[in-house]
């Protein structure tokens, strides 16, 4: 071998040193770790949205109770990948108490909510939204109260962050009530919604614009269309991985809405979709309550019993386990015999 040329061994040593130096360069780089909880209507498309965000070509399965997965993304080339924990609450509103499991005092600082509302079911829309957000808000507020005593700096930071999406000179700064966690509201099944009467679409769109703006949330309408899923993905990637969110806005009620947090206004949204005489007959203590009454006058809500989760997970074939199922059947048969002897 000619003098001065590298042996295979020399090349291997150089490659190892190169990799070690590269790893050393990343030692000072902080790896972000965030959590996102998806909640909303039963069969509203939550799983489909999560799978698309994670680039997984899987067929969505019904979600039972609370399910978990995660994703990893690098913000820049040759940098460590950040981690995002994705939680999905199944059962519509009936299992909302399970939110206490993923949202804790140790991760609330890096937590966000994605509320998926089925646009094809307007009679479930307000009840679903109100129930899920109310319980979540109460739980987060309890955590913040405790943190105020044990870690006041973190509690203060979270409370201040609630207002980040709204500039202090925004005309609605004193008129809104931001949600305590970053929030994205997704109106799913736009393909079905688009076939509704134009006036019906306008009422639903205006109402969701008001609710999103009032809570300091982003709003996007989506369906199985790749173009619309991409828009939802942009907002979710902002929550999960800190990617830049688009500043484009679409407020035309005849098209899919796309409104990042803080880019709407009460003046642009307009008054609740009802006549002055009808509004005068409604007694409401807050703007949110007024919009609720106007919306539910057009779309009377389903009874809460209609929204309950009635499926028995033990009968779901995707969770079948032969040995467990055989023992369960034997126990059930034994219990029936004991009851019949009494």
From TrEMBL:
The keyword Cytoplasm applies. It comes from Apteryx mantelli. Gene3D superfamilies: P-loop containing nucleotide triphosphate hydrolases (3.40.50.300). Belongs to the dynein light intermediate chain family. The gene is DYNC2LI1. It comes from the Eukaryota. Signal peptide: none annotated. It is found in: Cytoplasm, Cytoskeleton, Cilium axoneme; Cytoplasm, Cytoskeleton, Cilium basal body; Cytoplasm, Cytoskeleton, Microtubule organizing center, Centrosome. The lineage of its organism: Eukaryota, Metazoa, Chordata, Craniata, Vertebrata. Pfam families: DLIC. SUPFAM superfamilies: P-loop containing nucleoside triphosphate hydrolases (SSF52540). This is Cytoplasmic dynein 2 light intermediate chain 1. The keyword Phosphoprotein does not apply. Keywords: Cell projection, Cilium, Cilium biogenesis/degradation, Cytoplasm, Cytoskeleton, Developmental protein, Dynein, Microtubule, Motor protein. InterPro entries: DYNC2LI1 (IPR040045), Dynein_light_int_chain (IPR022780), P-loop_NTPase (IPR027417).
């Amino acid at each position: 071998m000619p003098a001065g040329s590298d042996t295979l061994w020399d090349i291997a040593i150089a490659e190892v040193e190169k990799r070690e130096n590269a790893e050393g360069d990343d030692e000072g780089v902080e790896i972000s770790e965030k959590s996102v909880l998806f909640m909303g209507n039963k069969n509203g498309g939550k799983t489909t949205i999560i799978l698309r965000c994670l680039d997984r070509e899987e067929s969505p399965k019904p979600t039972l109770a609370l399910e978990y997965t995660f994703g990893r993304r690098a913000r820049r080339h040759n940098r460590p990948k950040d981690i995002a924990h994705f939680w999905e609450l199944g059962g519509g509103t009936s299992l909302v108490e399970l939110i206490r499991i993923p949202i804790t005092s140790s991760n609330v600082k890096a937590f966000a909510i994605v509320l998926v509302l089925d646009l094809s079911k307007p009679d479930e829309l307000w009840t679903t939204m109100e129930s899920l957000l109310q319980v979540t808000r109460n739980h987060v507020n309890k955590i913040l109260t405790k943190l105020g005593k044990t870690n006041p700096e973190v509690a203060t930071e979270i409370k201040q962050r609630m207002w980040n999406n709204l500039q202090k000179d925004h005309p609605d700064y004193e008129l809104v009530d931001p949600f305590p966690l970053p929030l994205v509201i997704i109106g799913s099944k736009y393909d079905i919604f688009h076939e509704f009467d134009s006036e019906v679409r306008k009422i639903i769109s205006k109402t969701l614009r008001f609710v999103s703006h009032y809570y300091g949330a982003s709003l996007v309408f989506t369906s199985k269309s790749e173009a619309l899923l991409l828009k939802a993905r942009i907002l979710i990637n902002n929550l999960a991985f800190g990617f830049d969110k688009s500043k484009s806005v679409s407020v035309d009620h005849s098209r899919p809405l796309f409104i990042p947090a803080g880019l709407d206004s009460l003046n642009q949204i307009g008054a609740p979709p009802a006549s002055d005489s009808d509004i005068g007959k409604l007694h409401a203590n807050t703007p949110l309550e007024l919009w609720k009454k106007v919306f539910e006058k057009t779309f009377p809500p389903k009874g809460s019993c209609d929204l309950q989760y009635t499926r028995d997970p033990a009968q779901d074939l995707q969770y079948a386990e032969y040995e467990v199922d055989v023992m369960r059947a034997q126990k059930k048969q034994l219990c029936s015999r004991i009851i019949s002897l009494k």
